[in-house]
Design brief:
The complex is a heterodimer of chains A (189) and B (713). Chain A is built from six helices and four strands, in the order αααααβαβββ. Chain A has 189 residues and is mostly helical. In chain B, the strands form four sheets. In chain B, strands 1-13-12-16-14-15 form a six-stranded mixed β-sheet, with helices on both faces. The chains are: A mainly alpha (189), B alpha/beta (713).
C-alpha cells in the first residue's frame, strides 16, 4: 500500500513538473539560433565575403550548421581560436584558400582609398561595398567614408580604371599602442 | 559634513591605502625663485593640448598674431582654444613631434617670434563679483584653460555644474618627487591664487573650500594661510607627505573620508577638485584677461647645471629650456658620438614616477607639462640602462600593499601578460591611476605600471574595434534591407507597367500613329544610309597612315553601332505602337512594314560596318541592342566611357604593338580585346572619336524623342 502511495505521489509530482517544463518551453521560447548569434558576435563584421558567404551573419549561421571554422581571413587566428572555444572544437589553421602572407604590412588595418582624379564615376564600387561606405553617383567622382570602411577589399576588383587602392590606416595618438619592445620602459625613481 | 570640518579643524585627516615615500629631491629647485625666460626665437603650438578635441584654425601661414590672440576656436564643448603666447608671424602649420610618449607628430602652429611681445587689446576686469556666472564661464572657456595638474580636462566643463557642491578641493599637494612648480607658484602668487579660488567659489558656491597641501612646503603653506586668513570658508589643510596624495581620489579620501566609486566622478559625490595652477590661470583669465599662454615649469635633475623653475611660454621647445638651464651632456663629453647615440641622455617630461621619456628635444611645452627632468647617470642609473632587469615575480605582495587604489597589481600583471582583457576588467584595471607605486617597490624590478598602460590602451582599442564592427554590421543589415525593398519595389513597378500595357492593348484606342511610324521608319532608313555612305567615303579615302585608319575604323564602328541601335529602337517602337492603332489589321500591316524597313536599315548598317577592315559590329551595338529603348543610349554612353578608360590603359601598356597585327586580330577576338588593340592610335584621337560618338548619340536621342512625340500626337 505504502509503495503504491509513493509511486502515486512521485508520479503526480513528475507529471506536474513535466507539465510545467512543457509550458515553460513554449512560453519562454527563444526565437532564432543563439549559437549563430554568438558566432556572429565573434566575427569581425567586415562583410568581405572571403569565406564564400555573403556577409558575416550567413557565415555564422553556416558555422553553426557545421561549416569549417577556419574561413574568416580578416579575423585570422584570433577569431578561429574564439570560435573553437565557443564550439568546443579544435583550433585549425586558416583555410589555405585565403592564407594571407604574414608580413606585418598585410596585417595592418587598412581602408580603401579612391584616387579621385582617375575616377570615372561608374558606380561599380558603390554597388560592391557591403557597408555603403562609398559616396558618389553616376558620372560623379566617388569617395570613401574612411570611418565606415571595413577594409574588405571588395571594391578594388570591380573598378574598371583601377583607381581604388587599400591604404593602411595612419597611426595617430588615438589608436597608438604602447610597444614595450620599441620604447624603453624604465621605472625611474 | 560638520564632523568632517571638525576633524579638519582638529588637524586630523583620513588615510588612503598604501602609498610610498620616495626621496623628495625637491630641494634642488625649491630654494630659487621662478625665473623669467627671454623670448625664444620660435614657438611650436600643438592644436590639441588637452583631453578632448582640437579646435578649428583661425589663422593662416604668414598671418601676424598678437600676444594672447586666439588661434583656434570650436563650438565643441570639449575643445579649448590655443592662443599666441607672444606676438609674431605664423611661419608654418604642419605636423610636428608633440609631448606624448609615442613621439608621434600632430598638427602644430609654428610662430616666428618678433620679440616685441605686443599684446592684443585686453579688458581688465576690476571687480569679478559683478560678472554673471555665464560671463565667467565664457571667460574661462575662451582663455583656453584646461586642468594643469596633468590630465588636461577642460576647466569650463568642470566648473559648469549643477549646484549642491559640498566641497571644492584645491589640489596643492604636488606629491611627485622633484617637482616644485606649484610650490613656487603658491609662494609667489598666493594672492592671485586666492582670487582664482574666490572666482571658483562664486561659480560653484561650495559649502567648504579645502586646500590640500603636503607638509613639505612650509613657505607655501605660510603664504596661503596669510592670503586666506580673512576667509572663513577656505581651510588650508596641511597633510602628511606621502605619494600619491595628489591623486584626485586619494586627496578626496584624505580630506573628507569619502571614497569615489569606481567609474564615478567626484562631482557625483558633490566634490570638485581643481589644481592650484589652474586657479592661478583662472584668476589671470578672468581678472587680467590673460589667456593660458604660460606656465611654471620645473627644470631639474643633476644633468642641469642651473636647475630652477621658469615661467615658460607654451610652445617653447624643450631644447631651448635645457639650454637655458645649463644642460650638461655627459655622454658627449666622455664618449664618442656613436656610443652617445645609443645611450642618449634621457629627458623626462613630467615627474620621475608618472612622466615619460621624450624621444625628441624639439617637443614643445604644453598646458599640462609641469616638469622637465634631466637626470645624471649616477642619479638615475635605470633611466640610462636600456636592458631590462626584470626578473620573475616572487609573489612578495609589496605591490598590493602600496597600491593606493587597493587593486591587486600582481594578479593584474599576470593577466596583462596573458592579454586576458576580461580578467583585467574584472580586476578593475581602469581604477589604476598609473601612479607607479607598485613598480617603485617591486623587488623584481617588473615595470608593472607599463604593463597596465599597454593593457589599458589595448582594451580601449578593442572597445573601439567592437564599436566599429557593430556599426559595420548595422550598416550591412541596413543595406541588405534597402536592396530587398528596392527589388520588391522594382518588381511591383514592372508588374504595374505590364498591367498598363495590357490595358492599353485591350482598349485598342483610336489615336493612331500609322503615318508617323512610317515616317519614322523612313527617317531611320535615310539616316542609316547616310551613315553608311559616310563610312564608305571615309574608307575610300587613301589611308597611308595606319593610325588614321584605326581612328576612322573606330568612328565608323561606333556609327554603325548607333545606326543599329537606332534601327532596333525604332523596331521596338513599332512593335508597341500597333496597340494604339485604331484598326488592328492596318496596324499589323504597318508594323510589318516598319519592321521590314528597320531590318533593311539594320542590314545596311551591318554591311557598312563589315566593309571596314577593322570594324567589329558586335562591339557596342550588341550591348545597345540588349535592352529597352530608354536604357539603350545610356548603356552606349557608359560603353563609350569604359572604352575610353580601357583605351587609355591599353595605350599605356602596348604602346609598341604593331598596327597591322592588330587589325588582323580585331576580327577574330572578342569585343573588349578588339578595342584594346584598336587603340594603337594615340589615345587622344580615340578619345576624340569617343566624344564624337557620344555627341552623335545624344543628337540621335533627341531626334528620336522628337519623333516619338510626333507619333504620339
Amino acid at each position: 500500500m505504502n509503495i503504491l502511495l509513493a509511486i502515486l505521489v512521485l508520479g503526480v509530482i513528475s507529471a506536474l513538473f513535466g507539465a510545467l517544463l512543457g509550458y515553460a518551453s513554449i512560453r519562454f521560447h527563444v526565437e532564432g539560433d543563439p549559437i549563430a548569434e554568438q558566432l556572429d558576435a565573434l566575427l569581425p563584421q567586415t562583410q568581405c565575403g572571403q569565406c564564400g558567404y555573403p556577409g558575416c551573419k550567413p557565415y555564422a549561421e553556416a558555422v553553426a550548421n557545421g561549416e569549417a571554422i577556419n574561413k574568416c581571413a580578416p579575423g585570422g587566428e584570433d577569431t578561429i581560436k574564439k570560435i573553437a572555444d565557443l564550439l568546443g572544437v579544435d583550433v585549425q589553421p586558416l583555410d589555405d584558400n585565403h592564407e594571407q602572407d604574414d608580413s606585418s604590412q598585410s596585417n595592418l588595418p587598412k581602408v580603401a582609398f579612391i584616387i579621385e582624379e582617375d575616377c570615372i564615376g561608374c558606380t561599380k564600387c558603390i554597388q560592391a561595398c557591403p557597408v555603403d561606405a562609398i559616396l558618389g553617383a553616376a558620372k560623379q567622382m566617388h569617395t570613401i567614408l574612411s570611418d565606415e570602411c571595413t577594409g574588405c577589399d571588395l571594391c578594388v576588383a570591380p573598378c574598371p580604371v583601377d583607381c581604388i587602392e587599400m591604404r593602411p590606416t595612419p597611426e595617430t595618438i588615438q589608436n597608438w599602442q604602447w610597444d614595450l619592445n620599441k620604447i624603453a620602459v624604465k621605472q625611474i625613481g | 559634513m560638520e564632523s568632517i570640518i571638525e576633524r579638519i579643524n582638529q588637524g586630523k585627516f583620513w588615510h588612503f591605502h598604501g602609498g610610498i615615500h620616495p626621496p623628495e629631491q625637491k630641494a634642488t629647485t625649491s630654494d630659487k625663485p621662478i625665473k623669467q625666460l627671454s623670448l625664444p626665437k620660435q614657438l611650436v603650438l600643438p592644436l590639441q593640448q588637452h583631453i578632448g578635441r582640437q579646435g578649428d584654425l583661425l589663422v593662416e601661414v604668414g598671418d601676424k598674431v598678437l600676444k594672447g590672440q586666439a588661434l583656434t576656436q570650436s563650438s565643441n564643448p570639449m575643445a579649448v582654444p590655443v592662443h599666441a603666447p607672444t606676438s609674431g608671424t605664423i611661419s608654418a602649420i604642419k605636423k610636428s613631434v608633440i609631448a606624448h610618449p609615442s613621439g608621434l607628430s600632430e598638427l602644430c602652429l609654428f610662430i616666428d617670434v618678433d620679440g616685441e611681445d605686443t599684446w592684443k587689446k585686453r579688458e581688465i576686469c576690476q571687480d569679478f563679483s559683478q560678472l554673471s556666472r555665464q560671463e565667467i564661464i565664457t571667460k574661462i572657456s575662451n582663455a583656453g584653460i584646461a586642468g594643469m595638474g596633468g590630465a588636461g580636462f577642460p576647466t569650463h566643463i568642470k566648473v559648469n555644474t549643477k549646484p549642491d557642491i559640498n566641497f571644492l578641493i584645491i589640489n596643492a599637494a604636488e606629491c611627485e618627487p622633484y617637482i616644485t612648480s606649484d610650490d613656487l607658484l603658491m609662494r609667489e602668487q598666493s594672492e592671485a591664487i586666492v582670487d582664482g579660488i574666490k572666482i571658483l567659489d562664486q561659480l560653484l558656491n561650495p559649502a567648504f573650500i579645502l586646500i590640500g597641501i603636503e607638509n613639505n612646503k612650509p613657505q607655501a603653506i605660510k603664504a596661503l594661510q596669510q592670503a586666506t586668513k580673512h576667509i572663513e570658508k577656505i581651510k588650508v589643510c596641511v597633510l602628511p607627505t606621502k605619494y600619491p596624495t595628489g591623486g584626485e581620489k586619494q586627496l578626496i579620501k584624505i580630506l573628507t573620508g569619502k571614497e569615489v566609486d569606481s567609474g564615478s566622478l567626484p562631482i557625483n559625490s558633490g566634490i570638485v577638485v581643481q589644481n592650484v595652477a589652474t586657479c592661478f590661470a583662472i584668476s589671470d583669465a578672468v581678472i587680467n584677461d590673460i589667456p593660458l599662454i604660460r606656465r611654471v615649469v620645473t627644470l631639474t635633475g643633476k644633468a642641469l647645471s642651473k636647475p630652477q623653475n621658469f615661467w615658460v611660454l607654451l610652445g617653447t621647445q624643450v631644447s631651448y629650456l635645457l639650454e637655458q638651464a645649463g644642460f650638461v651632456n655627459e655622454d658627449n663629453n666622455n664618449q664618442n658620438t656613436q656610443a652617445s647615440l645609443q645611450t642618449s641622455p634621457p629627458v623626462i617630461m613630467g615627474g620621475p614616477l608618472m612622466g615619460f621619456s621624450i624621444l625628441n628635444e624639439q617637443v614643445p611645452i604644453v598646458k599640462t607639462s609641469n616638469c622637465i627632468l634631466a637626470p645624471s647617470k649616477t642619479e638615475m642609473p635605470s633611466a640610462f640602462d636600456n636592458s631590462s632587469n626584470e626578473v620573475e615575480c616572487i609573489r612578495c605582495g609589496q605591490c598590493a600593499d602600496v597600491c593606493p587604489s587597493q587593486l591587486l597589481p600582481q594578479e593584474m600583471q599576470w593577466s596583462a601578460k596573458a592579454k586576458d582583457h576580461q580578467q583585467l576588467t574584472k580586476l578593475n584595471l581602469f581604477d589604476c591611476i598609473d601612479c607607479g607605486a607598485c613598480a617603485y617597490v617591486c623587488p623584481s624590478q617588473i615595470p608593472l605600471v607599463q604593463y597596465y598602460r599597454v593593457a589599458k590602451a589595448e582594451i580601449r582599442q578593442q572597445q573601439q574595434l567592437d564599436i566599429k564592427s557593430e556599426k559595420a554590421k548595422a550598416r550591412f543589415e541596413a543595406r541588405k534591407l534597402r536592396l530587398e525593398q528596392e527589388k520588391i519595389a522594382r518588381q511591383a513597378k514592372h508588374e504595374k507597367a505590364a498591367a498598363a500595357r495590357k490595358a492599353t492593348m485591350n482598349k485598342k484606342s483610336a489615336d493612331g500613329g500609322t503615318a508617323s511610324s512610317a515616317v519614322a521608319a523612313a527617317l531611320a532608313r535615310v539616316k542609316a544610309k547616310k551613315a553608311a555612305d559616310q563610312n564608305k567615303a571615309e574608307t575610300a579615302e587613301p589611308t597611308n597612315q595606319v593610325q588614321d585608319n584605326n581612328v576612322q575604323s573606330e568612328k565608323s564602328q561606333v556609327k554603325a553601332a548607333i545606326a543599329r541601335a537606332k534601327a532596333k529602337r525604332l523596331a521596338n517602337e513599332q512593335a508597341t505602337k500597333p496597340a494604339i492603332d485604331n484598326n488592328v489589321q492596318d496596324s499589323v500591316v504597318d508594323d510589318k512594314k516598319a519592321r521590314v524597313a528597320a531590318a533593311i536599315a539594320k542590314a545596311k548598317a551591318k554591311k557598312a560596318a563589315e566593309k571596314e577592315p577593322s570594324s567589329n559590329p558586335d562591339v557596342s551595338s550588341a550591348e545597345a541592342q540588349n535592352t529597352s529603348t530608354g536604357a539603350d543610349d545610356k548603356k552606349a554612353r557608359i560603353a563609350a566611357a569604359v572604352a575610353k578608360a580601357k583605351a587609355k590603359k591599353a595605350t599605356k601598356k602596348e604602346s609598341s604593338s604593331s598596327p597591322e597585327v592588330s587589325s588582323v586580330e580585331e576580327q577574330n577576338i572578342s569585343t573588349d580585346d578588339a578595342q584594346n588593340t584598336a587603340t594603337d592610335a594615340d589615345d587622344k584621337k580615340v578619345r576624340i572619336a569617343a566624344a564624337v560618338a557620344k555627341a552623335k548619340l545624344k543628337a540621335l536621342d533627341r531626334a528620336k524623342q522628337a519623333s516619338t512625340t510626333n507619333s504620339e500626337e
